[in-house]
Amino acid sequence: MPDLHMHTLVVRDHVVSCLDPDIIQHSKGHDAIQLDLDAEWDGLDVSIVMVGPDYKAVEVLYTGEPVTIPASVCEDTRWLPVGIVGYGDGGNVRVLTARADRLLKVVPSGPFEGGEPIPDPPDVLGQLLEARDEALEAAERAEQAAEHAESVKRGTQVSVTDGRPTIGGIEGDSAIDPVTGQFWEFVDDGTSASE
What we know:
Elements: E1 5-12, E2 15-18, E3 22-24, E4 31-37, E5 45-51, E6 57-62, E7 67-68, E8 78-80, E9 82-88, E10 93-96, E11 104-107, H1 124-151, E12 158-160, E13 174-176, E14 183-185
Parallel strand pairs: 1-4, 3-11, 12-13
Antiparallel strand pairs: 1-2, 4-7, 5-6, 5-9, 8-11, 9-10, 13-14
């Protein structure tokens, strides 16, 4: 896979700047955003929000790794509005950057032969739904493993003991005292063994 073309957005005192603002129109899976945030963003859940040509906001969760710019926002030549949002304290805190409508720019591409579009990465809701589905699958696998472990039973056992056994077992287990020849079998009636 080729290297991503990185657009580093620097955020200082809620103002966003970028040294490489041009994104080539029709690019797919090649341009990415990396954030350089000041200390105000420490401990927050951060998202990058871009406004598509249909004026619909596209929000992508930022986890510290570069975020691929969705192809849908690169189809038309135009300024690409972008903002950074941070949430904390269970949603009681929201930190925003100042408006940046003319920070990134989609510039005209050279000619190319069309092809199948690369699907955009999921938005924040899609990412959360994927995480939920993965957690549900993991819980289901754990439940199946627990059911399997419960269904696997050991066979009955015979123990050698000195007198009447003092610990339980499972129904069908037995114990024998080699000195007296006394034989006990475990029964599941609340007692440890019966003669």
